[in-house]
Amino acid sequence: MRIDIISIFPDVFTPLHSSIIKRAQDKNVLLLKIWNLRDFTTDRHKKVDDAPYGGGKGMVFKCDPVFRSIKKVKEENPKGWVILTSPQGKVFNHDTAKKISGKKGLIIICGHYEGVDERIKRVVDEEISIGDYVLTGGEIPAMVITDAVTRLLPGVLPEGAPEYESFINDLLDWPCWTRPEKYRSMKVPKVLLSGDHKKIEQWRLKKAIEITKAKRPDLYRLYLKK
Ligand SMILES: C[S@@+](CC[C@H](N)C(=O)[O-])C[C@H]1O[C@@H](n2cnc3c(N)ncnc32)[C@H](O)[C@@H]1O
C-alpha cells in the first residue's frame, strides 16, 4: 500500500522509520512518502495559514496549499483515500483500520493551529479522530493511523499473528508470561507449561473473555452478540 502524509512538520515522522513499519517499507509492502505542505505555497514566506473570518484566536489552514498538495500527491497515488485528521472525525478503531487497509492507497492531511478552512473538507473522503481530546496537530494521529493500518497489511506481521490480537472478534488479548517460570514467588500458570496445545488454546480464549468482560464491558457485549 502507498501512504502519503501531508504536514507542515515533515521531520517529526521518525517513529515510522523503525521497527515493524520500517520492515514493511523494506519489504515494499508499504511505500511511505511525507510531503511538506509549505512546498505547495506560492508566496515568498511559504504561508499556509491565515486568520479566521469572523475573528477569534488562532490561525486556519488556507485552501490553496492543501488543494494543490492533494492534486500533486494524487498524481503519484491516484486511488489514495483522502483522510483529514480532525477531532470532529469518526473515532478511529480496529474496524476502521481494517477497512482502510483494504484501500488501494491512502493520503493523510495533518491539520494544525485552529484547524482548516471548511472548504478543504469537500476534497477529503473521510475525517478521522483518534479520540475525544484535542492534540496540537494531526502528525501524531497520522502516525497512529499509518501504524495501525500497516500492521494489517498482508506480509507485515507473521502469518496468522493479527488474528490473535486485541479487538479481533471483539475480544482483548489473552495474558502472557515468559521465562523464568517463577519470579519472586509469582508462578506461570501450569497449563502453559503442559505442552497440550488444545488445552492452552481453550484456556487462552477463556482468559481473553474474562479480561474483556472485566476491562471492556462495552466490547464484551459486542462479543456476546456475535
Ligand atoms: C489544535 S487542533 C484543532 C482543534 C479544533 N479547533 C477543535 O477544537 O476541534 C489542530 C489539528 O490537530 C489535529 N487533531 C487534534 N486533535 C485531534 C484528534 N483527536 N484526532 C485527530 N486529529 C486531531 C487536527 O488535524 C486539527 O486540525
Describe this structure in words.
With 226 residues, the protein is an alpha/beta fold. The chain folds into two domains: 2-151, Alpha/beta knot; 166-225, Orthogonal Bundle (Trp Operon Repressor, Chain A), CATH 1.10.1270.20. Helices cover 31% and strands 19% of the residues. It has helices spanning 19-26, 63-76, 94-101, 139-151, 197-215, 217-225, and strands spanning 2-7, 31-36, 49-50, 60-61, 80-91, 105-109, 115-116, 126-129, 182-183, 186-187. Strands 2-1-6-5-8 form a five-stranded parallel beta sheet, sandwiched between helices. The two termini are 31 Å apart. It binds S-adenosylmethionine.
Biggest sheet layout: 5 strands, parallel
State which percent range the strand residues make up. 15-25%
Nearest-angstrom radius of gyration? Answer: 22 Å
Number of helices: 6
* CATH class annotation of the largest domain: Alpha Beta
How many separate domains make up the residues?
A: 2
The CATH homologous superfamily name of the largest domain equals SPOUT methyltransferase, trefoil knot domain
Structural class: alpha/beta
**Arithmetic mean of pLDDT:** 97
Chain-wise SSE layout:
Blueprint: E1 2-7, H1 19-26, E2 31-36, E3 49-50, E4 60-61, H2 63-76, E5 80-91, H3 94-101, E6 105-109, E7 115-116, E8 126-129, H4 139-151, E9 182-183, E10 186-187, H5 197-215, H6 217-225
Parallel strand pairs: 1-2, 1-6, 4-7, 5-6, 5-8
Antiparallel strand pairs: 3-4, 9-10
Helix pairs in contact: 3-4, 5-6
Bound molecules: S-adenosylmethionine (SAM).
